[in-house]
Design brief:
By secondary structure, the protein is of the alpha/beta class. It is 30% helix and 17% strand. Helix 7 links the parallel strand 9 and strand 10. It starts with 14 loop residues before the first strand and ends with a helix. Bound molecules: NADP nicotinamide-adenine-dinucleotide phosphate and iron/sulfur cluster. The site of NADP nicotinamide-adenine-dinucleotide phosphate has 23 residues, from helix 18.
Length: 674
């Protein structure tokens, strides 16, 4: 395994735990996939985890499994509480072991975050992100909960897992006991810190006692709560020492409670922005520490390990994006990695809307058995017109299947809307997706024809024609929209338009928000880790319990107004788990939101609207149009008129609510059928 030429020597150093050796320093972190609750889900999970084991993950941790009903994250979440429930888990452990991997099962008790009426907590305090108030656990209930954790671990052992991860962070039950803010008890489970950590210590001790020494116990410890009156740093150290003494094998890092109003994993979070927290704990305990959050490339992971910030790195979403992440890094093919861009769109956002998770850049994730890759029976000549997300996805998939593909692109480079997206502050990761596609185009010998306005004659001779010509901005019917200080978003984001200090943005969808963020650049957006920590009030010095401080933001560079005609909250259609970040960022920068407006005209003074029963002027220097898009389907219509058939995908097919997730999925699904 370990090669001296490796570009990532620290990443590929095995970790000897005494009774088991982990083949490298990469942990696949716990993620709920939605398969846990699906009929036939175990079979699909077995295929999903086995592929990641085959791809080289050192140690895998499953999504959370409740030790009892009150610990469910949502009604009927996966629970392991009886011997009759271990069969499905055995499918997973056998499949992973068959690939030479190792896997731990996470035990998660949701506490007051449980989205159901049976949820429990140390005290009767409802979580701000839950509508269900918890029932208070009695002393007997606490002892029963500890027994349930232990029984769950014993059953995991019997099911063949190499260990368990005890979820002690993110504001779930154990974390609620540890922190005085949520634990107001006056019995032996509350009050002093020693009392408040009695629960996790008893759980880890109890598990170790029952499962023996040759079983991994990872404890996920909340090292930075990011809520007021969370744990102090001294308490974090004390807890870590107590957990080590109780018998844990490894300590993993938890950052931020779910109710924290600070982004911890979204794209806006710089890579490895929280590894300094784990580094603070290095040397305080004897067992290895795992660090986490926004580690998505082998370079970053290697640097984290090389600089001694942790003994192991945890990557979760990057394993959705590319199951072969480790193998590619090990073979020095890091440029072939499909990098997680931290968008949350197809993973967390799906989970929160009760859909099976997948991945925007890799739609096969969690769908290994129902969207399998297969080589084509007969190699065809395929023309793909349009090098945006849909066209790229279709071209590389078809070529990987063995077809001979030509990709035509009107612009001087491929990328389409991704070229704009990567210019948005906090969305720079889109550049990685473009790099991935470019490498795949070359690897699968796709013939790329740039700067080509394609005619019917160019594609007539191909066996299959795919139209992925994308979208163009929707024109608006507002008087004055043709004035020189009115620009489209593409001109603005590509830096071609001169934009003044006072700006009105017409349209409050994803692109309106992105344009506002772009225009605030330099005034407020974050570039390195310290700028991010300062802007969101995260204290590297850890002076307050919980690790928060007063945010420090530079003065906004521009005065921005963002408008929509409909009533209701602007940005409502933004991502479920990231929309609040975009809204919050703009609000913190003084952006003024307008809903329920009627546009009257644009003139030299600015934008005239009708709002609140009167005509008003929004005095601005520049107006930017972000009013959505319409399909670019001219070529598809010409081809149809010429009597040829073609496939239309992505924005060219349907512009409404188009996003990269749908485009990439459609491109891949079509290529799988060709
Ligand atoms: P969009 O989400 O459809 O928003 C278009 C905006 O323009 C709306 O606020 C709409 O509000 C307004 N509008 C529509 N027709 C108009 C007209 N004739 N005159 C004036 N205003 C008009 O489109 P988008 O912002 O261009 O985004 C396109 C797609 O990209 C979306 O599906 C989005 O999901 C995706 N995207 C997502 C993100 C993200 O952060 N997740 C970022 C960028 C893009 P009113 O009709 O109420 O005025
Ligand atoms: Fe990463 Fe986005 Fe894929 Fe989730 S959907 S794994 S955040 S690239």
């Amino acid at each position: 395994m370990h090669t001296t030429e490796s570009a990532f020597p620290h990443l590929f150093r095995p970790l000897d735990l005494g009774f088991i050796t982990i083949r490298n320093r990469v942990l696949m972190g716990s993620m709920h996939t939605g398969l846990e609750e699906e009929r036939g889900g175990f079979r699909r999970m077995a295929a999903y985890y086995a592929l990641r084991a085959e791809g080289g993950a050192g140690l895998i941790v499953t999504g959370g499994v409740a030790p009892n009903r009150s610990g469910w994250v949502a009604p009927f979440s996966l629970r392991l509480a009886a011997a009759s429930q271990i069969d499905g888990h055995q499918l997973i452990t056998e499949a992973v072991h068959h690939q030479g991997g190792a896997i731990c099962m996470q035990i998660l008790h949701a506490g007051r975050y449980g989205y159901h009426p049976l949820c429990v907590a140390p005290s009767k305090l409802k979580a701000p992100i839950n509508r269900f108030a918890p029932r208070v656990l009695s002393r007997r209930g606490i002892r029963k909960t500890i027994d349930d954790f232990i029984r769950c671990a014993v059953l995991a052992h019997q099911a063949g897992y190499d260990g368990v991860e005890v979820m002690g962070s993110e504001g779930y039950l154990i974390n609620e006991f540890i922190v005085a803010k949520t634990n107001r008890r006056s019995d032996e489970w509350g009050g002093s810190f020693a009392n408040r950590i009695r629960l996790p210590v008893a759980i880890v001790e109890g598990i170790r006692d029952k499962v023996g020494e040759r079983f991994i116990i990872i404890y996920r410890l909340s090292m930075l709560d990011l809520v007021d009156n969370g744990s102090s740093w001294e308490e974090v150290i004390e807890l870590a020492a107590a957990i080590e003494k109780a018998g844990a094998t490894l300590i993993n890092t938890g950052i931020g409670w779910h109710e924290a109003r600070v982004p911890t994993i979204a794209t806006i979070v710089p890579r490895a922005a929280f590894t300094w927290v784990t580094r603070r704990l290095m040397g305080e305990v004897g067992i290895p520490l795992i660090t986490s959050n926004r580690i998505n490339t082998p370079d970053v992971a290697e640097e984290v390990l090389a600089t001694g910030a942790a003994d192991m790195v945890s990557l979760a979403r990057p394993f959705l994006a590319d199951p072969l992440w480790v193998q590619k890094a090990e073979d020095n093919r890091a440029d072939e990695i499909n990098t997680c861009i931290a968008c949350n769109q197809a993973c967390l956002d799906h989970i929160f809307t009760r859909k099976t998770a997948s991945c925007l850049v890799n739609p096969r994730a969690c769908h290994e058995t129902i969207r399998p890759f297969a080589r084509a029976g007969r190699s065809k000549r395929i023309a793909v017109v349009g090098g945006g997300p849909a066209g790229l996805s279709c071209a590389v998939t078809a070529a990987a299947r063995g077809h001979r593909v030509t990709l035509f692109e009107a612009a001087g480079e491929v990328g389409g809307q991704f070229l704009l997206a990567r210019a948005i502050p906090g969305k720079e990761e889109f550049a990685e997706t473009l790099r991935y596609f470019r490498v795949q185009l070359a690897r699968h010998e796709v013939a790329v024809r740039l700067s080509r306005q394609v005619t019917v004659g160019d594609v007539r001779e191909y066996d299959e024609i795919v139209i992925a010509t994308g979208v163009r901005p929707r024109p608006v019917a507002i008087e004055g929209a043709d004035l020189p200080h009115v620009h489209g978003y593409a001109e603005v984001i590509s830096g071609r338009a001169a934009v003044g200090r006072r700006v009105a943005i017409i349209g409050a969808g994803g692109i309106g928000f992105d344009t506002a963020a772009y225009l605030l650049e330099g005034g407020s957006t974050t570039t390195g880790i310290d700028a991010f920590l300062n802007a969101w009030g995260i204290d590297r010095q850890y002076r307050q319990p919980g690790g928060l401080k007063k945010p420090v933001r530079p003065e906004p560079r521009r005065e921005i107004h963002i408008l929509q005609r409909r009533s209701g909250k602007p940005g409502e259609g933004l991502g479920k788990t990231t929309g609040w970040i975009h809204r919050s960022l703009l609000k913190k920068n003084g952006v003024k939101f307008w809903s329920g407006v009627e546009y009257r005209r644009i003139d030299g003074q600015g934008l005239w609207i009708h709002h609140g029963g009167e005509e008003q002027l929004i005095a601005v220097d520049t107006v930017v149009i972000c009013a959505g898009q319409v399909s670019e389907r001219g070529l598809a219509e010409e081809i149809a008129a010429a009597g040829r058939s073609c496939h239309v995908i992505g924005g060219a097919l349907e512009a409404v609510e188009l996003d990269a997730e749908r485009a990439i999925l459609q491109g891949m699904e079509l290529a799988d059928r060709l």
